[in-house]
Specification:
This protein is an all-alpha fold. The chain has four domains: about 140 residues, no CATH class; about 70 residues, Tetratricopeptide repeat domain (Serine Threonine Protein Phosphatase 5, Tetratricopeptide repeat); about 70 residues, Serine Threonine Protein Phosphatase 5, Tetratricopeptide repeat (Alpha Horseshoe), CATH 1.25.40; about 130 residues, Serine Threonine Protein Phosphatase 5, Tetratricopeptide repeat (Alpha Horseshoe). It has 19 helices and no strands. Helix 1 packs across helix 3, helix 9 packs antiparallel against helix 10 and helix 18 runs antiparallel to helix 19. The protein is elongated and about 90 Å long. The protein starts with a helix and ends with a helix. Pfam families: TPR_11, TPR_16. InterPro entries: TPR-like_helical_dom_sf, TPR_rpt, Ycf3/AcsC/BcsC/TPR_MFPF. This is Photosystem I assembly protein Ycf3.
Amino acid sequence: MKNTILTLGVVALSSVTFGQKLKLTEAAVAYNGVAKTMWMMNPDGVQPAKSSIIEAKEAIDAAYAEYEEKGSAHNLKKSKDEAKLFYYRGVIYLEYPMIMAVSKDEEALKEMEANQEKYEGIPFNSLKKSLEIDDYYEDDISEKMNMYRGLALQGGNQMFNDGKYEEAFASYAGAVEMSEVIGYKDTIAMFNAGLSADKLDNYDDAIKYYGMAAENNYGGSDIYRNIIQVLNRKNGGPSDEAYTYIEKAKAKYPGDINIIIEEFNYHNSKGDADKAQAALQAAIDKDPNNPIFHYSIGATFDEMANAKHEAGDHEGAKLYVEKAIEAYKKAIEIDPNYADAYYNMGVLYNNESYSLTNQIKNIEDVAIYNEKLKESKDLLREAIPYLEKSHELTPTDANTLKLLKSIYFTLEMNDEYQVVADKLKDLGQ
């Protein structure tokens, strides 16, 4: 009796093993049928591919369900067979949604949408699991991931250029996941996923993917500045959350002007002027006689002042204008022949005049209007000596001459206007 039970057990065990392997083989055969249709390049192959992928999915689901049910007692004793199960589960679940989408199978699409997390998780987790178990399918997985990663990046670039940032984000994020399957850090895809999410004001994903790029040393200090600015938007201004990234960036890129300015901005927003100035001064003290450093500080504050004006916060722009002027003047003091610093000073005063002129358009009180108009013209007069010095240092720079021409015209300085107009004519402008 004992021998009979043992014999029946062996038969049963054999049949279970054969059944599981049979389902796995069915899945593999059906999936290979998908590849033969060349559905990506051949529209006529979509329907045959659909039939094959449905058959493959049913078979792999059955094989995997049995694998799960048996747990450690499963009958795929060879690591190669177990790796095969996860390989085919991964590639089938990877292509199934694509084929259903191309074939416009509404019922399948609704089912996938209802189980989105499942369909997103299975393909890449399964392929990773296959590689963990055995490297038998390593080349196949690498080839598959690189092919689809290339398509995802290409599609992402097209979608981004077309302004379809949601689709671009999905493509770039997919490329990141595919690269992770094969142990590759695609920092460009990480950054582009962050940038696409940033465009959508999808703050959490922007921070996630920018953060991944930063951790892999992509983008230098600029990537941290991106994260800080996203967090500032998310939190309605400089925040403690953003400050943690300022600290990280300072540790990684000490002395970086953009991060220093972000720290200045953070402390200033908290009303702590002493800490704000100390952050700036600490950086200056490291290289006090470097005119380029002071110029960079000025240019950054200048940019921030313009952003405040564009947002309608003209009062908020004043501090940044003062800091920009202070920094530009210091750069000129150190290097009296620094043409760019003179030019930027002239542009700053011109921009301030333009902003003030726009602000007073709706003032009905004539006396107040005339007073403000005089202020606007005085700002233009402030610009002239800096632009004239810039022209002296760079006599063939057309941008300087064009700005001088515009200012002379506004201030009715006719003789000066004509001289500049003739110089531009000589330059072919």
